[in-house]
């Protein structure tokens, strides 16, 4: 370990996650700064033309252009790779840039994807609307049942693509079972792990190949910047992902990378405290609304599987009221502390009505197939005192007749 300048990966890999979250990937400049430096530069200068040629030829280590490399961005990529237990990571400008790159870099005309029904709205648009234009087809299944993955496999199936837990229904996928099916058939698994983050769940430990993130959510964790990441084997990142991203340019800005580096320092603390608050709020809501979709609660049918895969509850879940959109909107309108906002992973508590916001771009029958009802509300439980959150929900529920 070079105390002042850089890190020896053989040492940092053995650090515990909480240590990696604070120190992993840090590369110090000649000034020995303690907090990571922010390199706002688009280009790099060379000592001579020969050096420039050697760098472009890949014969000399060093950076050439910030679409391809940036010191601040690389620190974040190394930190996320360490936390994820992945050989390599590349960051992207947003979570959707990460999902798009993770899929498009490896599919070709004629390929087939099997995807979980419950997913972030834009992820469904990618597979249902964009990819078919290029001859890539998708079968959508209930990902809670591993057998449905196996049954949907065709000779041209290239990928399994799913979230767990999924947005906003909280469907849980059995990572070990589904990744084993994929391995048996030579299929690549792409897991959107935005809700859990590596602090609570590391899909690669269960056999997943590629893990993709919206780092906008828990990794930043304070609702400031958009960011994304794709993790996988060195071979996948270098030979499959990079040719796509270097030339299409979904690059994360150095400033946003720096903000996410700061966010990761407190990820473990935040997610554990928010998880505790979420369980308190979920337990309260269970007494007051007909349905709470939160696998961390013992009453949930997927509780045992969820607890096997996740180190804690996470901050996000959904619940349902019987009075449809009108009652859901009335409940949101009655909130005094919790914000009506469709973001998640923030340290502030936020609530949204998915069918009229995040998933409004999908046809109603598609929403119902995904399990998103008109009475469903999603909540991100923040770092406020849980008693204040429960008091706010209590008065808003009463105002909405609940
Ligand atoms: C937010 C989110 C995305 C998209 O990420 P952006 O950073 O908003 O582009 C993808 N998947 C899941 C599960 C998300 O929650």
TrEMBL record:
Which GO biological process entries does UniProt record here? 'de novo' L-methionine biosynthetic process; homocysteine biosynthetic process; transsulfuration
Query: What Gene Ontology cellular-component terms does the record carry?
Result: cytoplasm
EC number(s) recorded for this UniProt protein: 2.5.1.-
Q: Which reaction does it catalyse?
A: O-succinyl-L-homoserine + hydrogen sulfide = L-homocysteine + succinate
Q: From which source organism is this entry?
A: Sphingomonas trueperi
Modified-residue entries (N6-(pyridoxal phosphate)lysine), positions: 217
Per its Swiss-Prot or TrEMBL entry, what cofactor is needed?
pyridoxal 5'-phosphate
This entry's Gene Ontology molecular function terms read: carbon-sulfur lyase activity; pyridoxal phosphate binding; transferase activity, transferring alkyl or aryl (other than methyl) groups
Q: Which UniProt keywords apply?
A: Amino-acid biosynthesis, Methionine biosynthesis, Pyridoxal phosphate, Transferase
Q: In which pathway does it act?
A: Amino-acid biosynthesis; L-methionine biosynthesis via de novo pathway; L-homocysteine from O-succinyl-L-homoserine: step 1/1
Matching InterPro entries = Cys/Met-Metab_PyrdxlP-dep_enz, O-succ-hSer_sulfhydrylase, PyrdxlP-dep_Trfase, PyrdxlP-dep_Trfase_major, PyrdxlP-dep_Trfase_small
Q: State the oligomer form and interacting partners.
A: Homotetramer.
Q: Which Pfam families match?
A: Cys_Met_Meta_PP
| Protein task | Catalyzes the formation of L-homocysteine from O-succinyl-L-homoserine (OSHS) and hydrogen sulfide.
Q: Which SUPFAM superfamilies match?
A: PLP-dependent transferases
Q: Hey, which family's this protein in? A: Belongs to the trans-sulfuration enzymes family. MetZ subfamily.
Q: Which Gene3D superfamilies match?
A: Aspartate Aminotransferase, domain 1, Type I PLP-dependent aspartate aminotransferase-like (Major domain)
Protein name, entry field? O-succinylhomoserine sulfhydrylase
Entry keyword annotation includes Nucleus: no
